[in-house]
Amino acid sequence: MALGIISIFRRHGRQYVKDLRKAALPEGFRGRPVISGDISQAEEKIAEALCPTGAIESGPFRLDLGKCEFCMECSFALPGKIRFTADYRIASNSRQGLIVKAGEDRPVVVEQGSAGKEIRSFFHNALKLRQVSAGGDNSAEMELNACGNVNFDMGRYGIEFVASPRHADGLVISGPMSGNMAEALQICYDATPSPKIVILAGTAAISSGIFNDSAALDRKFIERIRPDLYVPGNPPHPLTFINGILDLTGRK
Amino acid sequence: MNGERDGMVVVNSNPFVVPLGDIPVLAYPLFMDKVNEMMVDEGCHCVTYHAVPMGADLRFFCCIASDHEHSLILLSHEQKASPSPVLDSLTPSIPSFHMFEREISEQYGVEFTGHPWMKPLRSHKRDEEQRMQDAGCGMHPYSFFSIEGEGVHEVGVGPIHAGIIEPGYFRFICKGEKVLHLEIQLGFQHRGIEKLFLEKLTSIQRAILAESIAGDTAVGHSIAHVQLMEVITGTMPSPALQAERVIALELERIAVHIGDSAALCTDIAYQFGQVVNEALRTVVINTTQLWCGNRFGKGIVRTGGCHYPLKDGFVKTLLSNLKDVEERYGQISQEIFTNPSVLSRFEGIGKLSARQAGMIGAVGMASRSSGVKRDIRWSHPFQAFNNYAYEPVTLHQGDVWARAMLRKIEVEKSIRIIRDLLERHGPDPAPGKPVYDHSIHTSSFALSMAEGWRGEIMQSAVTDEKGNIIHYKVKDPSFHNWMALALAVRNQEISDFPLCNKSYSLSYCGFDL
After folding, report:
1. Which of B259, B289, B307 faces A29 most closely, judged by CB atoms?
2. Is the model's pTM score more than 0.90?
3. Cβ-Cβ contacts under 8 Å, A144 against chain B
4. Is there a domain that residue A224 lies in?
5. Distance between CA atoms of residues B283 and A148, nearest Å
6. Domain contains A229
7. Is B455 left (phi over 0), alpha (psi -120 to 50) or beta?
8. In this structure, are residues A221 and A185 in contact, taking their beta carbons and an 8 Å threshold?
């Protein structure tokens, strides 16, 4: 038995991603899209019509990562014009920051303005988060769980998920916000002591994505509260989430 | 393929499509007799029983699967939609119908007389104003089942739980530490999926909806969806495409089973088993990501073709990663299942008997771990399983150990399936792009099933005379299996609930739709 354990440990080796800030994802990962500057008006219209969630607007061309389900159908229809790169750093603290325009190949960033000063001073070294799934499909939830696993281990930065909102510095919301969760979500937010932050994890949370216009949703919570971080993805990759928080809290 | 027998349609294929005109409408008493007669056979279970509004009528469709005869039997009856129909309940004679009748009642106001436990399934029926006024998160106006007596107390948990997990409400009635009864109330995740399938009109939108029914079963639900779309458009997937879909499905099964093996270790504080299995799950989902750019396989399954045909280079990586995972998962499983402190927490905990599993209509892992041989890959083969003799794993113990062991064996079997299919088909010689323009069979009823990692997934559609989809129905395996959990924790210590819950690993969003 002891020999078995030693052999398992040996093969297990070191699992953690050494540098979460510089880790690269393999080619083919569906990250930040780049749109060619010479996309024609007709092509823009094709992409706009194909897009299942209205994330694409034509004239001028805009792709909203907050609405994008990363299905890449636009890219399959217009190869060479729309390309999804493996750049997973697509979180931003402004909704506007998630808009990708044609002819621009710029990273998505978390603005380090004065608005975030309080967040940076309070939560730079430790950030405890309470997660609330409000209609999430369990893929975003699994990726958020993975943020703390043996591979990603965001605990190394003092970032952790906690059980009680009383112990939390903020909420991480996933899912399009079902009407049946509206009350619980509000109670959980109210129970979290200030100062607190709100992070929207995944396209469904940011814009309701494919669930847009469903009568079963209730997104009034998000009209009352200004989120501090938007993390796009279907679901958001752990590296997207962790780097978004590190940027938000001003970590190197 | 399709035949008629005594006013019922008998089908031997999955998926299938039948013109509405070919489905006999039975008088309700006759319908009841026939259903009662068939469901006496323990090898039969109801795949779906739901209502479809059609003009001034409500048309009811009931599909019963025979596990051993590999057939599907479709029955139908019809009622005037207004005033709301009042029907005798089938639940007193067939307990597994309690969910179907509750759903029909909630969706269309049908009253089932004699139903022992009519209560909301998903709807909380409270507008925001009311929610803000009322205290607590209970279901209004529903009052929970209660027991009175000395030393009896209640424990309410949810809808938000202590981890990163979907919401649901559990109310335990306990005597001391012992659970006498657990009532599970879901619906918090309800997103209106079935209606959205009618409102979102493009094939791409529907494909993404299917992936979002339960994101941990993106491939399973997508396969059920594309099968349905293909059967109502008369499209036949190529053998290579069918094999690719099954490879994606089995890869999903391997990833989740290993992830749940880790989680079971977490819940008994066996960290060694947890971290080793977590790392192995990462290898599997990263392999899926290498294939399609998404760790959950979203985007792989599309109607009529595929954006991500298997390529030589990837197949090599897939095979070598699977070999690595197989060896390491075998080693850690050996440790887990021979460790006395693990076994003392797995064995005899959360038992569900074969009889109970049969009564509640349990499917998939929940049935197979309780000795009920029920696996769509075997009984009603779909895609590449049509040419692959899959023999399901069945364990009779019905406890946490059986559900853990079932995962271990199924991972081994799934790896074998992938290897066999790759040997037979290899990379797709003529990969086709997805086909999104379809003309749909008019005035038809169609049904499709797939065996996801949790169990049987059912999706069904009805089309009108113009070929529009006018009704879409989804059934996740969790629909029946939550009841398995409620029964399994009876007479257990309440502290064993998390372990029992994880051992079933059911879907909240898949149930809530």
Report:
1. B289
2. yes
3. 164
4. yes
5. 16
6. yes
7. left
8. yes
- Which among B128, B216, B298 is the nearest to A182, CB-wise? B128
Q: So what's the pLDDT on residue B117?
A: 84
Q: What is the pLDDT of residues A129-169, one digit of tens each?
A: 999 999 999 999 999 999 999 999 999 999 999 999 999 99
- What residues of A are in contact with residue B292 (Cβ under 8 Å)? 28
Indicate the fold that domain B3-113 takes in CATH.
Answer: Beta Polymerase; domain 2 (3.30.460)
Which ipTM was obtained for this model?
Answer: 0.94
Range of the domain at A197: 114-248
Domain ranges of chain B: 3-113, 144-185, 219-473
Structure tokens at A91: 């979180």
Residues of A in contact with B192 (CB under 8 A): 211, 214-217
Note the CATH architecture for domain B219-473: Orthogonal Bundle (1.10)
φ, ψ at B456 (rounded to 5°): -70, 125
What is the rounded CA–CA span in Å between residue B126 and residue A216? Answer: 12
For position A214, which CATH number holds? 3.40.50.12280
pLDDT digits (tens, 9 = 90+) for A86-119: 999 999 999 999 999 999 999 999 988 766 788 8
How many Å apart are CA B84 and CA B82, to the nearest integer? 5
Give pLDDT, residue B342.
96
Select the residue from B131, B165, B189, B325 to test the A interface by mutation, using most A Cβ atoms within 10 A.
B189
pLDDT band at B141 (very low <50, low <70, confident <90, very high): low
Interface contacts A/B by beta carbons within 8 Å: 192
pLDDT in tens, B284-333: 999 999 999 999 999 999 999 999 999 989 999 999 999 999 999 999 99
Q: Evaluate whether residue A174 is within a structural domain.
A: yes
Query: Distances from the Cα of A61 to the Cαs of A68, A71, A94, B84, B445, in angstroms?
Result: 14, 18, 19, 51, 41
Q: Which of A112-121, A230-239, B391-400, B456-465 has the lowest mean pLDDT?
A: A112-121
With vertex at residue B404, the alpha carbon angle to CA B399 and CA B406, rounded to the nearest 5 degrees, is 95
Asked if pLDDT for residue B442 goes beyond 50, the answer is: yes
- Pick from A16, A48, A56, A139 the residue to mutate for testing the B interface (most B CBs within 10 Å): A139
How high is the pLDDT of residue A28?
Answer: 94
Query: According to the model, what pLDDT value does residue B428 have?
Result: 76
Mean of pLDDT values over A222-239? 95
Burial class (CB in 10 A: 0-12, 13-18, 19+), B224: buried
B66/chain A closest Cα distance in angstroms: 31
Using a 10 angstrom Cβ sphere, with 0-12 exposed, 13-18 middle and 19 or more buried, the burial of residue B383 is buried
B304 CA to chain A: closest CA distance, Å? Answer: 15
What is the number of structural domains in chain A? 1
CB-count exposure of residue A168 (10 Å: 0-12, 13-18, 19+): buried
Task: Categorize the per-residue pLDDT at B138 as very low, low, confident or very high, splitting at 50, 70 and 90.
Answer: very low
The pLDDT value recorded for residue B128 is 42
Residues in A closer than 8 angstroms to B187, CB to CB, are 180
Could you tell me where the DSSP H helices lie in A30-162? 41-50, 73-77, 117-123, 139-146
Alpha-carbon span B146 to B144, nearest angstrom: 6
Which of B218, B275, B299 has the CB atom closest to A150's CB atom? B275
CA gyration radius for chain A? 19
- Establish if A97 belongs to a structural domain: no
pLDDT per residue over A56-86, tens digit each? 999 899 999 999 999 999 999 999 999 999 9
Q: Is the pLDDT of residue B124 over 70?
A: no
Q: Which residue of B has its CA nearest to A213?
A: B196
Report chain B residues whose CB lies below 8 A from the CB of A71.
Answer: 204, 207-208, 298-299
